[in-house]
Amino acid sequence: MPADIPAPTTTDEAPHPRFAVGVLAFCGVVVAVMQTIVVPLLPHIPALTGATPAAASWLVTVTLLTGAVFTPVLGRVGDMYGKRRVLVASLMVLVVGSVLCAVSSHIGVLITGRALQGAALAVVPLGISILRDELPPERVLSAVALMSSTLGIGAAVGLPVAALVVENFDWHTMFWVSGVIGVIDIVLVLWCVPESPLRTRGRFDALGALGLSGALVCLLLAVTQGADWGWTSPRTAGLLVAAVVVALVWGAYELRVPSPMVDLRVSARPAVLLTNVAALLIGFAFYANSLVTAQMVQEPKATGYGLGASLVVSGLCLLPGGVMMVALSPVSARISAKYGPKVSLALAAGVIAAGYVVRYFTSHSLWLIIAGATVVASGTAIAYSALPALVMRGVPVSETGAANGLNTLMRSIGQAFCSATVAAVLANITFLVGGRTAPTLHAYQLVFLIAAGAALAALLVTLCLPGSRTPAAGTVEESRNTPGDRKDGVRTMPIQEGA
After folding, report:
1. Would you tell me which of 93, 239, 333, 372 could form a disulfide with 145, CB atoms 3.0–4.6 Å apart?
2. Sequence-separated (6 or more) residues with CB below 8 Å from residue 231
3. Do the strands 4-6 and 198-200 form a parallel or antiparallel pair, or are they unpaired?
4. Contacts from 47-53 at CB under 8 Å and sequence distance 24+?
């Protein structure tokens, strides 16, 4: 197994690492915002660009694809060649993508720009890895919790911000703003974030990266486009078969190479495998909240349940959830430090399920809808904070970037499956109202029940995790100045049993 080794000494050490947590969290929020920033714009894209609705949908699909592909790949590259270096490169790609979208109304250019923005999602696992390497033990859990929660915070913030821009400014403005903020992120990272001193030995597994990318593209294309192409169409079925075949060939190859793209033996450990399964289910459960809330409150009052809210109001419904995610990330860290991240994740899954129960029975009042959505977001905050702690518990320090990238990927796959499921439910359980077809209230309630079921499944998976060998505060992580013990070429960390 490759071991982590110190990087060559350089003179470009960032001068203000004490600000690294805030800077990396800000980068994570910006990158996460990019995932949802075009959602309010989608209904208007055909008129603005002359593209078909199917082509416009690729502005979301392509971001999901590139994020899924590049997140684990760049996490591995960061482990080998420098995490800050790769993080800065990812932010540069985001800036280029933002500028492309800002200067053009051609659908092809817009899709290319959105693909580049999606690739920057790797910033989150890279940031988690840097924090693990650089911070003193007592600060790791809270910092990693905040960094991981930025995925949910950005999703909650992105919709209302984008809605405000769409309604009040030229739509290109939000891409110019994202490009400028991306440049600010780069400057702040170079100023405040030190380069990790750890590297992983070995040669980058290019064939492994290609195989993983091929399997993911086939799977996610089938999932995201299956509703339009038909779930039994030759194209969808062919992609699903191809995904399975490529994944099997890729897995056999990865087990034979000395420095694999993904160490499947480590990933198959129950502590890692079940954590990734839980991440997929939590990603599914969380995303339903974002997908249906804005649409539900915008439905006309003639439906009997819709509130006829504006685009901006519907986006603002998710904002309290984003605030709670910021507030609860340190709470989750304290729970994990005292009782272990397994307890945190189980608690989070239960809270998410309870939030959907609230949503099931409170679909006619704006304030109760906001309350239910906020409960779901609160559970997600605790879950997203606990997941990287569980991952880091089960993998060597030398594989932190790749392992957290894989965990982030599983959340993205869960979101993709959720998007397909929600689209299928809302498109097939409808009725005519005011001369148009709209989803019934039962359709939305069914989505809530499915999402609650995913959360309960995540709870069951979490309970099956091995007994918590979780570090308490002060022992969760060795500091960068403490070499730690080595066994079989891999640095180990002092840990103690959680309560």
Report:
1. 333
2. none
3. antiparallel
4. 48/105, 48/171, 49/105, 49/106, 49/107, 49/110, 50/107, 51/107
pLDDT for 314-347, tens place per residue? 778 888 888 888 888 888 888 888 888 999 999 9
Please state, in angstroms and as integers, the Cα–Cα distance from residue 207 to each residue in 76, 197, 259, 278, following that order. 13, 27, 11, 28
Token couple for 223: 């999932």
Q: Which amino acid is at 79?
A: D
Q: Are 142 and 23 contacting, i.e. CB atoms less than 8 angstroms apart?
A: no
Question: Token pair of 21, please?
Answer: 């947590």
How far is the first Cα of the chain from the last one, in angstroms, to the nearest whole number?
A: 31
Query: 462 and 346 in contact (C-beta within 8 Å)?
Result: yes
DSSP secondary structure of 71-100: HHHHHHHHHHH-HHHHHHHHHHHHHHHHHH
Block residue for tokens 């992580």: 477
Give the CA distances from residue 45 to residues 49, 171, 225, 266, 427, in Å, rounded to whole numbers and listed in that order.
Answer: 6, 10, 18, 44, 21
Cβ neighbours for 370, distance < 8 A, ≥ 6 positions apart: 317, 320
For the full predicted model, state whether its pTM sits above 0.70: yes
> How many residues are given for the chain?
499
| DSSP category for residue 9 | P
Q: What are phi and psi of 440, to 5 degrees?
A: -80, 165
**Amino acid found at 209:** A
Residue 8 CB neighbour total at 10 angstroms:
8
Helices (DSSP H) in 258-362: which residue ranges? 264-267, 270-298, 311-316, 319-339, 341-361
More confident position, 55 or 472: 55
- 421 three-class SS: helix
Instruction: Considering only residues 93 and 302, tell me which one the structure prediction assigns the higher pLDDT.
Output: 93
Secondary structure element (H or E) that encloses residue 186, with its range:
helix 173-192
* DSSP classification of residue 429: S
What torsion, rounded to 10 degrees, do the Cα atoms 456, 458, 463, 466 define?
170
Lookup result for tokens 């030995």: 201
Q: CA 219, 422, 346, 412 torsion: positive or negative? A: positive
